[in-house]
Write a structure and sequence with these properties.
The chain is of the alpha+beta class and 603 residues long. Among the domains are: 184 residues; 169 residues, 3-Layer(aba) Sandwich (Beta-lactamase). It is 21% helix and 23% strand. The chain is built from 14 helices and 26 strands. Strands 12-14-13-26-25-24-23-22-21 form a 9-stranded mixed β-sheet, with helices on both faces. Strands 1-3-4-7-8-9-10-11 form an 8-stranded antiparallel barrel. The relative contact order is 0.15.
Length: 603
Amino acid sequence: MKSTLIRRRGLALVFVLVLAASCTAPGRMPVPTTDRLGTLPAQGVSLGAILSGTGAVARSLLTFDNLKDGFEAASPVDNAALALPAEAAPAEHLFEGRLELLGEEATGEMLVLYGDQEQEREVPHLPEFDFAFVQSGDYLIPVQRGLIIAEHPYWNLILEPGRVWNEAGDQDYSRASFPFALVWKGSNATLNGVMTFLFNDEGVSKVWYQVTQETTISLKADMWGLLEAKYHPGPVPEGAQVRAAFDQELLARFPIRPIEQLAQDYPGVDSSAFGRGVTSEDMTWYGFVVNGVNYVGGCQTRYGPYPYCDSMRVSSYSTAKSAFVSVAMMRLAQKYGSGVPDLLIRDFVPEAAASPGDWSTVTFNDTLDMATGNYRTAAYMVDEESWDTDPFWSEEYFDELIAAAFNWPHSAPPGTRWVYRTSDTFIVTHALQNYLQTMEGPQADIFEFVVEEVYKPLQVSPGTYTVLRTKDNDWQGQPYGGLGQWWIPDDLAKITTLLNVDDGMIGSEQILHPEVLAAALQRSPDDRGVDISASSRYNNAFWANVYHSGYKCEVWVPQMLGYSGIVVALFPNGTTYYYASDNREFTWDAALREADKVIPICQ
């Protein structure tokens, strides 16, 4: 089995594009009226110290005896058994140190529900697990966030903050759980799980884990197991910094409300329109961002609601083209001049010289628009989905990938014909990287540039600070660009607010070039990008559809889209509808109609 299987089948875009026509730009969203920070704790009180239950929890699953002595399990259990219960009391112990799992390579079960059944035999176990955690109030925080390159042939890891609490039946132990994700090696495919265990000052119980949801069309699988574990207590050198950063992360999050509350906050709105049109068992989560509030729904798994919806990481797939690569060009244009999009690929990517195509006049902008003029066929998605003949989908090292990306003949003048290929985004990502190095030195990295100059000032979560890279230097090579990020709902709320509400400004500073951003969001009638069809365009790595019926004006809806069924639709009234799914269903019409009731699109 090749580790590139899920990556190859998890990247192309085949969308049923919505038919529409042309009109004028509607009004803008009003200034948010909701305090994004919510109610703050009293000075000197930890953000995590909020539990007030008695600890009288009625528990029949993952009991004290189960976790201490072990038990036989033929499947995962209801996720409620891994969630913070309503009557949870504050933890009586402080967890700080390393949690080490034992016997990962031989313990655990996997049931493939859809996909290659051989994976039950070849990839059923977790990677080696030995990571530091610190505690802040009742939060358990992994020191290492983002994509973790594991010593495992098939899996990498993502760890997210969990909770600690006390239950009366746990004797002299406290209880903890935290969300994690398995990520297919060299891929963007994500499988979501939770771990739980008991701990006190000296040790831990066995650790139960289960995986019950995913964001990939190639594999649906349950995984579960009970592992021996060791607790290595002791001060974590960066512990104070981790706690302070996490406290600030919580403060900076958008307020979250259940999607059902939208109808209460905005009478007349049908909240069931959000999430409509997507097969329920294939939906991970969805949300609607309006007036500074993130209304969230979904987070269902095959074993009940996911206990950590706000920290449930999903695959970006091709939304990375917009949220990373396009944003990188916007930032470079703002920092170093509006001429950046017009720079020539050939001047910054020497490998272009060996291409059978013609790259003599192809610009950064042409390449981001999927309009290089170098392609084999203009038929919809045929070049992109050449899984078995295009080596771009099987190679993992930079030299082979860049050679494959350029291996297309010349077929049309640049800027005239849209032919979607993730390999073009790989090229322009490298071009932006090399341009950045001419400006900031040979150690500059285009993804780190976006992290430091956009993501961190925007206060998106630390889980976004890593990206899928080529296999060079133990998977620390060049960013793929066209895929390879992981989102939680709050990340999308912040990124889309930057783009769609704040016009590329963070505070009083213009971070993204306003003209490049306006073109991407179809706010510049003189720059609509490249035609996909009579009613759809592609501009600066953003899709767009135009509607000229059902509304009183011309309505353009730009989107960030990802292969498995990732939709981030930026409505022209300043609201955003997003969802993550894995049945390749792409629809937002019903949500657009309801968004028009919240804030009229045509004003």
